[in-house]
Specification:
single chain; 325 residues; alpha+beta; Ribosomal Protein S5, domain 2; Alpha-Beta Plaits; 2 domains; eight-stranded mixed sheet; four-stranded antiparallel sheet
Length: 325
């Protein structure tokens, strides 16, 4: 048996510039971080005592005699890609729900790839793991997804990720004082809006229209450089204020990114002292993140008592194999 442990991620800046439809013409870059909430995938050889030859357990249980019998798009694609067609059982368990903007679909793809490579006694680098995850989601499954989540969950850490016009990418861990880093995450609040949505449904509305929204996309792009400088110099309050600027830009890209309910939550948070915030992922629902000085956070937590507050911290390892027998 093999068990992989893959972190979810929060995206700070540059979301949208990581779509190939944008960065292949304009380049792109993002700042994102993996967090201490994880997705676990276990794989084992299926003994020959069952009527089925393949079993997949997630929110549903799928059993069949070959991979093509599966309905789960990512699991089917990864198994086919690695030429594994039978005699395997896979279980998925996650700390956070799917369809919430925290990179769960990519964490699943990366975690399953990592586990199955280990299952086949093969090693894979973090860059190759991310690259294969991007290929499977964008080219095989043909999901309308960007390229940052696969990298963030594979590499782990707080990263500046650069996307080039030739579809290559570079990952650089942002270097700044550890105490400042701890303070940054103490100032981050995460609430679930109660709305579950599929990123593909939201992003397909605007993924091929990004160049028509270039005014806002260039603003989102430029803010990344400023945010990176603020982190490196320790100006995390200014970093938090930039979240407000990038959220205002992102809302202009598609009418599906936000709604009246989400806007009300956001405005209440700002009124109570949050410096900035944003919906995570493609938008439309899921988790909302705020930057707010720790001494004021109790007010917001009490105000949003009907929303699920999820405390988070920093994670630095990315997808890893935690058990193998």
């Amino acid at each position: 048996m093999v068990i992989s442990k893959t972190p979810y991620r929060i995206s700070f800046f540059g979301g949208g510039t990581d779509y190939p439809s944008w960065f292949n013409k304009n380049e792109g870059h993002v700042i994102s971080a993996s967090i201490d909430k994880f997705l676990y995938i276990s794989c084992r050889h299926l003994p020959p005592f069952f009527d089925h030859k393949i079993r997949l357990v997630y929110s549903k249980i799928e059993e069949g005699n070959k991979v093509s019998d599966l309905k789960h798009k990512s699991a089917k694609a990864v198994l086919k890609y690695l030429n594994i067609n039978k005699d395997i059982e896979i279980h998925y368990d996650g700390d956070l729900p799917a369809r919430s903007g925290i990179g769960s679909s990519s964490a699943f793809t990366i975690g399953l790839l990592n586990a199955l490579y280990s299952y086949k006694n093969k090693q894979i680098s973090k860059k190759n793991l991310a690259t294969k995850g991007i290929f499977i989601e964008q080219k095989i499954i043909k999901e309308n997804v960007g390229s940052q989540d696969q990298i963030a969950t594979s590499f782990g850490g707080l990263n500046y990720i650069k996307f080039k016009k030739n579809s290559s990418f570079n990952v650089n861990k942002i270097k700044f004082n550890d105490n400042v880093k701890k303070k940054l995450f103490k100032n981050i609040l995460l609430f679930h809006t109660g709305i579950f949505r599929t990123a593909d449904d939201i992003s397909k509305d605007y993924i091929n229209k990004l160049n028509l929204k270039s005014k806002y996309m260039y603003s989102i792009y430029d803010i990344v450089n400023e945010a990176k400088k603020n982190l490196e110099s320790g100006n995390i309050d200014d970093f938090g204020k930039l979240l407000n600027e990038t959220w205002m830009m992102k809302k202009q890209i598609s009418k599906l990114i936000t709604n009246n309910y989400i806007n009300e939550i956001y405005n209440q948070a700002i009124e109570l002292g949050a410096f900035g915030g944003k919906l995570l992922g493609a938008g439309g629902g899921g988790f909302m993140m705020f930057y707010m000085p720790q001494k004021k956070q109790k007010l917001l937590i009490n105000k949003f008592s009907k929303l699920l507050h999820v405390p988070i911290s920093f994670e630095n390892n990315g997808s890893s194999i935690v058990y193998k027998s």
